[in-house]
Amino acid sequence: MPKLIVQKFGGSSVANVEKIKNVANRIASYKRKGYNLVVVVSALGDTTDELVELAASISSNPSARETDVLLSTGEQISVALLAMAIHELGFEAVSLTGWQVGIISDASHTNARIVDIKASKIRQELKKGNIVIVAGFQGMTADMDITTLGRGGSDLTAVALAKVLNADRCEIYTDVNGIYTTDPRIEPKAKKIDEITYDEMLEMASLGAQVMQARSIEVAKKFNVLIHVRSSFSDNPGTMIIKEAKRMEGVIVRGITINKNEAKITICSVPDQPGVAAKIFGKLATAGVNVDMIVQNVSHTRETDISFTVAKNGLAETRKEAASIARTIKAGDVLVDEDVARVSIVGVGMKSHHGVAAGMFDALAKKKINIEMISTSDISISCIIKKKSAEAAVKALHSKFGLDKK
Amino acid sequence: MPKLIVQKFGGSSVANVEKIKNVANRIASYKRKGYNLVVVVSALGDTTDELVELAASISSNPSARETDVLLSTGEQISVALLAMAIHELGFEAVSLTGWQVGIISDASHTNARIVDIKASKIRQELKKGNIVIVAGFQGMTADMDITTLGRGGSDLTAVALAKVLNADRCEIYTDVNGIYTTDPRIEPKAKKIDEITYDEMLEMASLGAQVMQARSIEVAKKFNVLIHVRSSFSDNPGTMIIKEAKRMEGVIVRGITINKNEAKITICSVPDQPGVAAKIFGKLATAGVNVDMIVQNVSHTRETDISFTVAKNGLAETRKEAASIARTIKAGDVLVDEDVARVSIVGVGMKSHHGVAAGMFDALAKKKINIEMISTSDISISCIIKKKSAEAAVKALHSKFGLDKK
Questions:
Q1: Alpha helix locations (H) across B265-389?
Q2: Are the C-beta atoms of residues A363 and A400 closer than 8 Å to each other?
Q3: Record-annotated residues binding substrate (chains A, B) (predicted)?
Q4: Distance from the B190 Cα atom to the nearest Cα atom in chain A, whole angstroms
Q5: Strands (DSSP E) found in A32-160
């Protein structure tokens, strides 16, 4: 059996006819080398955003079910055009939509989770020698309703197909050369990372790195799918996402992320009683607010301040909810600070090294950057700082942990 | 059980957001009256043409299978948006694609024929009280490949669904008030026809009237589906397409059509031998040429001229094929005349009236219009004339057969 590769091309890789032809050429070059290919494609360029706008012109709160019917057309257009472009190069190819593949999801429209993949039609088409072009980002409920898998869902389609088809690897093509130690637009000394663990990649994606959808990395980790993140515009190797390897142990910090899309909310003068935090965050959860970092200072009086961060998206409702909670629990004012950024260092090496946090705080202190909140996990440390200091913080940390050198 | 109506809205009725909202209002008004509704929608405005152009920018001869995957997105966008617009008015609605409905077709991509309709999902959604919005023009093969039903295929979807669901009637909404005695842009005295038989409508559609797809009228006739062709911009009654009725007998000519999309081809000096016509038209059929009218003059020598008409679409290949045939059978030159028009009169009343043809020829003669070819059927007579005389011919015939008066 020839090797099977699943390749995924994002919207920027197929943004126009010229780029679609470029992608077709790359696919053909792999076919010539004798690989079997399943190719997952996103919608052309900004198509998804344009369709969302179209829906907004009809309804301020469009039905999630119908939004999925609408959005899934974006990928369907891509796969047909890419199949045509491959035919032009003399190769056999067929396109398949999510329902044709048999990607069965739950019914959480606009953010559905895959529950099963039939893939018999893919196998059938592969057997005929076809390159199979699959519409990313979409599935179907057991009840035959169209669903979409949330932003970045094409990554998930690719990883899940690689697992189900037992592919040799999954290549994620993007408009950058791979995963970088930090955003090169902020720190030009950022270096491409050759290898990164699933855990580190997951942490970086969750903390703001945009290259891959976090959920798809979880799935890749769970099923040990080998991922290669690379550029669709060059042949250079990119970043391999793998299980932890011996040779990776020397590295303490793998990368630095920055996230400016969070706001800090502080509920002041919270009565310091058992169960009050549970009350606050229980009510927020019920209201559908996704809280990220939480900090409560040890109090020496009968009152304390509780701060937490949330996505700026939906901030107005969160602020209202927090104010209502504050009244209920007889707390004081609610302060909202949108002028913050989260800077994080990520690396599995932290587990076995002491003093990494201290090193981070020291580097920030030397730049006179004030830390407002701290949060740690096994393999990451995050600090909330003023937004205006974010770039300086990234550069200081990049240098501090030796990421400038290779 | 409340009455069930199938309504079909063409691309011009849903060309933009404003028009989609207008259609939603009309649908809601019927729901308020207590009807159950299945609504078939075409792609927004020129979407289909735009998608065809997009494919052409990738390939000069795009795969028919992939063309269907691409084109079917047009209707999928329409149904989602229309469902959203209906929700805005406070009514329940769900969209369904061709495959979700279970419209099973053969595998003749871009021009597939419906072989079966499951419709269980439609029935299920109707039972829940939903207005069901169905993507027109599309189906799926038994092998789960997406197909489209050819130009005007949404009419076919509507008529076939009306049959399968045993609907009380099928309303075809369009941008004109119904079927006219002739094209009102040519003859301003043209009158809306209140009732027309399936056979007359079929003949008029085949002979150039653009309002409804001919194949859908065949299906309506076969299953006796009551059709009402009417405007999506007014509440006025349009044209009912029905079986022949007693009260319709008085009318001899129901309407006049004009078709400028045909060319006349003449093979000169054809040896006058038995079987030569069979040879010519057999070879043309094998080459996929769809011949329309055929005229062969009685010959008094050993040679004759044979003329026929074909669609201008694909004329270059037809001309080449005819030249090759002429060489094979040792005939003379092949002449092509694109400067012709076909003018036809249609009416079931002709069957029982003599002298209708003579009346037609007389009216044309009085305007000094030369007839180049004549073809007749049970309920129509067509003449090929010079294109520049077409408008004058239509007006003369409209007056001759009393269509100006009501």
A1: 276-286, 315-328, 356-366
A2: yes
A3: 48, 75
A4: 38
A5: 36-41, 93-96, 103-105, 114-117, 131-135, 138-141, 146-148
Tell me the CA distances in angstroms from B4 to A39, A210, B156, B162, B226, one per residue in order.
44, 50, 18, 9, 12
Give the whole-angstrom CA distance, residue A77 versus residue A18: 15
Which residues, 6+ apart, have CB-to-CB distance to B18 below 8 Å? Answer: none
d(CA B148, CA B105): 9
Is this structure's pTM higher than 0.80?
A: yes
Look at B59 and A94 and tell me if their CB atoms are within 8 Å.
Answer: no
Quote ipTM for the complex: 0.85
Cβ contact, residue pair B69, A17, below 8 Å: no
Residue A264 annotated as binding site? no
Cβ atoms < 10 Å from Cβ of B310: 24
Q: Where are the beta strands (DSSP E) in A207-316?
A: 227-231, 239-242, 255-259, 262-271, 291-296, 303-311
Amino acid letter, residue A397: L
Residues of A with Cβ-Cβ distance to B95 under 8 angstroms: 66, 69
Residue contact B70–A54, C-beta within 8 A: no
**Looking at CA atoms only, how far is residue A281 from chain B in angstroms?**
34
Query: pLDDT tens, B43-100?
Result: 998 899 999 999 999 999 999 999 999 999 999 999 999 999 999 999 999 999 999 9
How much is the mean pLDDT over chain B? 92
Domain A4-175 homologous superfamily, CATH: Acetylglutamate kinase-like (3.40.1160.10)
pLDDT tens digits for range A206-253: 887 777 888 899 999 999 999 999 998 888 999 999 987 666 657 889
Do B84 and A62 count as a contact with CB atoms less than 8 A apart? yes
- Please say whether the beta carbons of B184 and B257 come within 8 A: no
Delimit the domains of chain B by residue range.
4-175
